[in-house]
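Are you able to produce any protein sequence you like plus the matching backbone structure tokens because I've never seen that pairing?
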Amino acid sequence: MTDIKDDIKRYFQQQSEMYPGEIYLGEQAEDQGEENPLAEIHIMLENCEKCPLHKTVTHKVPGNGDSDASLMLIGEAPGREEDKQGVPFVGRSGQLLDKILTAIDLTREDVFISNIVKCRPPKNRNPHQDEIKNCIGYLEQEIEAVDPDIIVALGLVAAHTLLDSKDSLKNLRQSRHKYNGRILIPTYH
């Protein structure tokens, strides 16, 4: 466990050097012995080389948002803007998502947003099954760490992956589903 804590501390120190003033490296969490499972997932993801996608990305894109959110939104994969910034749903889809959240009196800070795969597939193609298999563990760990009440699967890839289904999105949208004891609602991306 000490190695993980050292890795986490090193990671945040590097982030602080690269992005001064954007990441706080206080000693409180270390003094209280608290662990941050999302930070651990981010470190594992940064070191991931399970599939060839890691070779072609600018940034891997871990989930982002409220680590205690009751609502989690899951897309299929990062796009060009997400790859540039390392944050999910910041491109055109993200702008639309922000408007939708505003319409229901929520913000990005109120939810947790992630993707099935954490690296952008070339030319924004859908992720291949082997890429999904290699990456789904990170998403499952994020889901367990955040522990949302409701998951919204944004798009066919997310719905098919989380529901282990090949049904049409039109049919899947007609009812609520369960994912590891949580409500799962599939919808369009």
